[in-house]
Specification:
It is elongated and about 85 Å long. The protein is α/β, with parallel strands linked by helices. A hairpin with a 5-residue loop joins β1 and β2. Helix content is 32%, strand content 20%. It folds into two domains: 293 residues, 3-Layer(aba) Sandwich (Aminopeptidase), CATH 3.40.630; 110 residues, Alpha-Beta Plaits, CATH 3.30.70.360. Strands 1, 2, 3, 4, 5, 6, 12, 13 and 14 form a nine-stranded mixed sheet that branches. Bound molecules: zinc ion (ZN). Zinc ion (ZN) binds next to loops.
Length: 411
């Protein structure tokens, strides 16, 4: 078979992406489709009927993850899975997640119209609540599938109306059997928008994703003393905010000397008592840092933990608490190489890269061979209504997945 000649239908892909964006489309052409909300249930039904129309069988598991299966020749063999998520954040975009699910749909449509019967089954997966926007945490269901999260705890997660995930699951009509869970696959492939500016800035078409970067999260508490802002001479103060200012300068000086791929963020800060005539007695702030090498993350931890001994803390006390960390996940080398080879053969420009954002694939990769590719995000934007990936870039990415699926299922 001359598999290189088979390509996806770009017009159909674009039309389908727009059709799915109608489920929850916002005024500014974004999408709000929170997990298991009415509009999510509608898009799930639509997805199911599109799959069934192709002769696929659709089941869901006990976390409402959906699996649409195209039967192959040897159906007792592990399937090749293509998947991502149909849920979005509030006022998110038209590409994040849904592109990866519709990649699977377009691949199957292409196979069916070309009369290709795969050797092994092909599954298109929609993983529930990747975003964690309605029910925390993010990547909830892949976390349960991989054993990283406890299901009973997840069922108790509540949305802002006080409804639990367990209740939403019961009401959804998509709560299936645990035995339907994805347990074994020949490969799990996820196409996702990059959500960062690298591919666009380097004018590259495809990112072959080798893994997801590890990260560490700290909370840092600086304690001083509150006094009157008018009557306390400067040398007699213990100003927690001035101390924090010095600490941040110290953090930046030291962190910037580490690897240039290190990213770090002070995303939250609370100043107490937060009254303009009172010297702040307490500042609590978070610091998260991400890097692919454990060694660099350890250096970050040393810098943060060393802050308690800082000479420049305005007579304040500093306490650092590590909240959680997560090691870098490396995807399956064989699948990564296959995706790279396919990209090269088709002739797309690409680079190997690691993801700074979390994805279901990172949990799924802990028990089955998994890898991802990225397509460029205009201005690096995502989780926003103006999230955009050009149709041609979507098409390129889906063609890489199609050729990879053909490689894995027709040889
Ligand atoms: Zn996503």
């Amino acid at each position: 078979m001359e598999k290189q000649k088979i390509l996806i239908n770009a017009v159909r892909l674009k039309d389908t992406l727009e059709e799915f964006a109608d489920f929850g489309r916002t005024e500014n052409n974004g999408v709000t489709r929170l997990a298991l909300s009415d509009v999510d249930l509608k898009v799930r039904k639509h997805f199911q009927s599109e799959c069934e129309h192709l002769g696929m069988t659709v089941v869901s598991d006990d976390m409402a993850n959906m699996y649409a299966t195209l039967a192959g020749i040897n159906n007792d063999q592990p399937p090749v899975v293509v998947g991502s998520h149909l849920d979005s954040v509030k006022k998110g975009g038209r590409f994040d997640g849904v592109l990866g699910v519709l990649t699977g749909l377009e691949v199957v449509r292409t196979l069916v119209e070309n009369g290709i019967k795969p050797q092994v089954p092909i599954v298109v997966a929609n993983i529930t609540n990747e975003e964690g926007a309605r029910f925390e945490p993010a990547m909830m269901s892949s976390g349960v599938l991989s054993g990283r999260f406890d299901k009973a705890t997840m069922l108790q997660s509540t949305d802002t109306d006080g409804l639990t995930f367990g209740e939403a699951l019961k009401n959804s009509g998509f709560e299936g059997k645990e035995e339907n869970r994805l347990t074994d696959a020949a490969a799990f492939l996820e196409l996702h928008i990059e959500q960062g500016p690298i591919l666009e800035s380097e004018s590259l078409q495809i990112g072959v994703v080798e893994g997801v970067v590890g990260m560490v999260n700290y909370e840092i508490e600086v304690s001083g003393e509150s006094d009157h802002a008018g009557t306390t001479p400067m040398p007699m103060r213990k100003d927690a905010l001035f101390a924090t200012n010095n600490l941040i300068t110290e953090i930046r000086e030291k962190m910037n000397k580490l690897d240039d791929k290190l990213v770090y963020t002070i995303g939250r800060m609370n100043v107490s008592p937060n009254i303009h005539t009172v010297i702040p007695n307490k500042v609590v702030f978070t610091l998260e840092a991400r890097h692919q090498d454990t060694k660099t993350i350890r250096q970050v931890e040393e810098i943060i933990e060393g802050l308690t001994e800082s000479s420049d803390k305005e007579k304040c006390e500093v306490k650092t608490t590590k909240q959680w960390d997560r090691n870098t996940v490396w995807f399956d080398k064989k699948i990564v190489n296959l995706l790279e080879q396919t990209t090269k053969t088709i002739g797309y420009s690409y680079k190997r890269m690691v993801s700074g954002a979390g994805h279901d694939s990172q949990f799924i990769s802990t028990y089955t061979p998994t890898a991802m590719i990225f397509v460029p995000s205009v201005n690096g934007k995502s989780h926003a209504e103006d999230e955009l990936t050009f149709w041609e870039d979507c098409e390129n990415g889906v063609n890489v997945i199609l050729q990879t699926v053909l490689d894995l299922t027709t040889k």
